[in-house]
């Protein structure tokens, strides 16, 4: 038999659940504002930017003007002028099987730059992390450093893997071997000083990978 008291219980449970939902929502909003600033909060509320063909063509024009040698030929400020809509456009260039290694390198540079400028790491990190598996080693190690700059430790083992690779990184200014670049990036983001000693870096990673935190631009255990 239905009793009036049962209705009060259901109403109480409803308001408790509603309160929990509101508290979770407030926590997410406060968390996004505290750690990513107002622009990050607005980005979260707006959701991911959508793909636009015109924006894609404009971004592709900027990427295509990069000559693969002179870093300054990549006009990041032109991508920045497009703003957040350039993110899905650059992602398409990065994922296009017909894109050259130079175009993919330029695309990850543009994505990372936009992520930092717009405080929108969450929108660019998935693409940068995917680039860690690129077929071109230059794209992989550059993506690894960019991934680390956005607070993800997933770039660390990619850099460690190339510490014995003495080929010249392309593009880079000034020219340097891939292993030196990897060692410098690892040292910068972890403050460890193992140089190009792959064995020591691997040991450090195996010991600390589950304990690493990203604070003030550095990974610490």
Description:
- The chain has ten helices and two strands; from the N terminus they run H-H-H-H-H-H-H-H-H-H-E-E.
- The chain is mostly helical and 221 residues long.
- The protein folds into two domains: 7-47; 51-211, Leucine-rich Repeat Variant (Alpha Horseshoe), CATH 1.25.10.
- Strand 1 and strand 2 (218-220) form a beta hairpin.
- Helix 5 packs antiparallel against helix 6 (121-130).
- The longest helix is centred in the N-terminal third of the chain and has 43 residues, at 4-46.
- Residues 31-43 have low confidence and may be disordered.
Strand arrangement in the largest pleated sheet: 1-2
Radius of gyration, in angstroms, nearest whole number: 22 Å
Q: Judging by the overall fold, what is the CATH architecture of the largest domain? A: Alpha Horseshoe
Helix vs. strand class: mainly alpha
Domain module count:
2
> Which CATH class of the largest domain?
Mainly Alpha
Listing every helix as H and every strand as E from the N terminus to the C terminus, the arrangement reads HHHHHHHHHHEE
- N/C terminus separation: 60 Å
Overall pLDDT: 88
**Main β-sheet description:** 2 strands, antiparallel
* Shape call: flat
Beta content: under 5%
Count all strands and give the number.
2
Low-confidence stretches: 31-43
Question: What is the helix tally?
Answer: 10
How much helix, percentage-wise, in residues? 55-70%
């Amino acid at each position: 038999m239905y009793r009036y008291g049962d209705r009060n219980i259901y109403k109480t449970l409803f308001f408790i659940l509603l309160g929990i939902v509101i508290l979770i929502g407030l926590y997410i909003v406060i968390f996004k504002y505290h750690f990513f600033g107002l622009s990050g909060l607005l980005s979260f509320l707006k959701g991911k930017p959508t793909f636009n063909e015109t924006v894609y063509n404009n971004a592709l024009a900027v990427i295509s003007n990069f000559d693969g040698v002179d870093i300054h030929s990549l006009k990041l400020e032109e991508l920045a002028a497009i703003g957040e809509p350039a993110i899905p456009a650059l992602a398409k260039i990065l994922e296009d099987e017909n894109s050259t290694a130079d175009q993919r390198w330029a695309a990850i540079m543009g994505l990372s730059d936009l992520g930092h400028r717009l405080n929108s790491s969450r929108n660019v990190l998935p693409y940068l992390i995917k680039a860690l598996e690129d077929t071109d080693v230059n794209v992989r190690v550059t993506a690894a450093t960019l991934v680390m700059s956005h607070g993800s430790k997933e770039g660390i083992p990619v850099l460690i893997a190339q510490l014995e690779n003495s080929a010249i990184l392309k593009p880079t200014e000034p020219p340097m071997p891939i292993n030196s670049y990897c060692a410098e990036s690892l040292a910068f983001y972890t403050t460890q000083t193992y140089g190009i000693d792959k064995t020591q870096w691997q040991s450090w990673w195996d010991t600390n990978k589950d304990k690493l935190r990203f604070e003030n631009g550095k990974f610490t255990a």
